[in-house]
Request: fold
Amino acid sequence: MQDENLISRLRDELLKRTGVDLRLDLWNGVQLGPKQAPYCIGLVHPWSARAALRRPFGRSVGEAYAAGLLDFEGDVASVIEQFHDMSSLRLSWRDWLTLAQLRRRLPRPPAAAPDGRRAVLAGRMHSGARDRAAIAFHYDLPQSFYEMYLGKNLTYSCAYFADAQEDIDTAQERKMDLICRKLRLGADSRLLDVGCGWGSLLIYAAQKYGVKGVGLTLSKGQLDAARGRVEGAGLSERIEIRLEDYRDIRGQFDAISSISMLEHVGPVHLSSYIQALRRLLVDGGLMLNHAIVLHDSSRSRLGSENDFIANYVFPDAGMVPAWRLVQACEQGDLKLVDLEQLGPHYALTLRCWLANLEANHNDIVRCASEEVYRIWRAYMGQSIFGFESEQLGVVQVLSAAHRLAEASLPLGRTWMSPSSALAGRE
Reply:
C-alpha cells in the first residue's frame, strides 16, 4: 500500500509540474490516470517506476520496457510522446528536487537488470570492421523476423503512399518505381544499389526496367537472402549481390541508388561517401540519395549519442539536416536535379510495420525473442513520434554527374512520377 501511495503521489506531482497526465496500471490491479487515454503504461513491479525514471528518460523507459519491467498497451507512440513532453520541459531546481526526492523513496529493484541485447562495438567509429559489426548487430537477426513485419517486398525504407489507407506492399512498390523513374533507368542500364538490403529494388528494376545491377551489403544474412531471392526470380545473370564496403568497390555505373544508407555512413564521412560514389558514376549519370534527415538546420546526430536507439537498435547511426546532404552533393561535383520530402510517408510506413509487428507477436517471439520484439516496438513508437511531430523527415535528393546536358532531362517533374499502373489516387 505504501508503494502504491508513493506512485500515486509521484504521478500527481508530475501532472502538476509538467502537465503530463500518465495513465498507469499498477502491479496490483490499481488504475491511475485518465481512463480514455490512447495508451496505458503497466508497472509490472513496485520498482518499475524507479527503473524507468532515470535520465535520460528516452533510454531508461526503453530499457525498462525491453527488460519487461514496463508494459505498453495501446498506441506505443503516445507513450513515447508523454515521456518526451515530460523530459523536454525546463523545470525549476525546486521541481526537480521534489521529483528526485520522491523517486528515491521508491523501492529499488532486487538486482540490476542486465543489458540484454545491447550493442558493444570496438574500434574507430565508421572503420570498415566497426561498420560491419554495427550492420550485423541490426540486420543479422532471423530472416523470418523481418519478413513478418516488412511485408512481401522486404523493403526496409520509407514507402510512397497514394493515401493513408493504402497497404504497405503497394506503397513500397510505388516507392521503388519512383526511384527507377527518377534515375531514368532503361534496358541494360548499369545500376549500383549501395546498402541493397534484401535486393528488392534491384529485382524490381531488373524485372520492370531491364537493368543490370550490383548490390552492396555488409550483412551476411542479407547477402544470403538477397542472392536466394535473385536466383528465385531468375535474375542471376543480371544482378550481382556482394558483401562489400562502398569504399572498396570499383567500376562505372549509369545510375546509383543509396536508400537509407546515409544514416549508416555518419555525418563526419558524408562528403567522402558522396565523393566515393561520384567516382563510380559515369558522366551524365544520375544518383539518388534517400535519407532520414533532421528538421533542425543547426544540429546533426553523430551516432555516438548514449540513447536507446544507439544502444539497442542502430549503433553508430547518424543524421544530418537536408541542406548538408545537398551541400555534400554539390561539393562532390554533382548537380542538384530534384529534392522531395517524404516525411509523412514514413510515419505511415512505420504505422504499417508496427501493426504487422504487433499482429505477429507470438511468432516473432518464437523466431527471435520477447526482448527483440519489445526493442523493435519501442524503436518504431519512438520513430513514429519523431516523424509525426516533424522532428524527422525523409528526403530524396536526385543529383547528376556534372556534365549532364540540360536538354537531356524533360521539363517539370511529371517524368519522375510512378508509372500509371501505380499512380493511385495522388
